[in-house]
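TODO from last week: model DUF1957 domain-containing protein.
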Amino acid sequence: MNGRFVLVLHSHLPYVLGKGRWPFGEEWLHQIALDTYLPLLEELEGLDHDNVPATIAVGITPILMEQLKSPAFVDSFRAWVDVKRKALEQDVSRLPDAPEAHDLNMFYREELDQRLRQFDMLGGDLLGAFASLQERGRLEILTSCATHGYMPLFGNDESRRLQIRTGIAVYQHWMGRRPSGFWLPECGYIPGVERLLAEEGLRYFIADAAAFDAGTGQEHTGVHIPIATSTEAPWTPWNIGADIAVFLRNPATSKQVWDRDLGYPGNGAYREFHKRCEGSGWQYWRITSKQTDLGAKELYRPGEARKRAAEHATHFASLVRDLAAQRERLTGDPGVMVAAYDTELFGHWWYEGSGWIAAVLRDLAAKESISVVAPTTVLAERDLPLGRLRESSWGAGGDHSTWMNPETSWIWDNIRDDQRHFIDLLPQLHGQTGDMLLREILLEESSDWPFMITTGQARTYGTARFLEHHRKVRALFAAVEGTGQLPTSQAGSDDPVFEHIRLNEVWKA
């Protein structure tokens, strides 16, 4: 019996087009398109060209879809690449006077030219390239909440429905089909959300293994069903009621990549993310070791890093096979392993990561004991056991504290007030003002703003972005109620996302 390996990549960036430049703003999107999305597309096309039997799942949040399809992104990306190319040329005078440094500079110039050619060949349509791979059976693309709203902290189901329905509508608009899978933002689960997803025809979502409720059992149509232990839980998708399945991340595969000490990305041969050339921002150094001070980092060696990535891919594929074999010896079933990661880890944070993914998939395909398949393939093959989840997330401690804490509670007080007000006003909302209000309240609800504040990586930016959308929501409320004027900044092209979405189409009483 072949085991099943399900690789899920979750792609998300908040709405940043026209919202600042660097380090937080639209250059964030440009950098990740260059570092992650283009290399990943190239690797997936290579797998397709070589007919490697592997289908992976890629979640792309609706707000990211909207940005990737924006003409403003296409134009600004090309302009940004021109700036990056000039900075590379200027680096020659900034780098150590060593052949190794100059070779690395030329390596980056050639890579940048290659990425721009790839971008131009795609017509700047990265989302269309992902959609094409889905049509060819190489990908299964998941949707998510419209703006990655953290649903466990929402004040009502109506607001959750609007995030879910808008997310599905955006997906359908750009993909030309309805989605089967859903990525819960931040893996944030609250009992009952499965019913909301099932109402919209979704078949599965992803959750963290810690979400599994390893209780004593549950009643189902009068029959007592035993619940698996938490260690057994990640080896199969579960039917949690409402005719929807949950796939749980396998802790062993997650640890091998994410763990601060044991994870592959921390290896000394890989490119150092945090040390950049002053003036250009290009990264010319390798990690060297975790103990090495930034000032003492050694120059990066691409060939050595590629070799290390191939070794780590071989190790990971062997780990997957060994875990499945152990499972089969114990139970007679090698089970289903789910590895779920943020897409942006591969390439942006871990420069060699996209190549590592492709090497893992090629290795697993070559040995044939493990099949790399999409979640819907697994659902078609297996009868699912009954299970249940508890309220949880993939944040620190598995709870909501990454998004709700003393620094961010004021955000949630405002969001919940606005959600209640919006739902009360729904019967009288129509036309452009209703559509604009939907757009702004969805943007206000993004999980990114409290996350930025909590982590401290962009506290000022996260606060400013939340307040921007919150103020627009309040101004629109006043305009609808006749106590204020529609803000002039909201006319025309301000916040030009979800322009094809109509409130009366996503809201059903």
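Done. The two ends are 48 Å apart (CA to CA).
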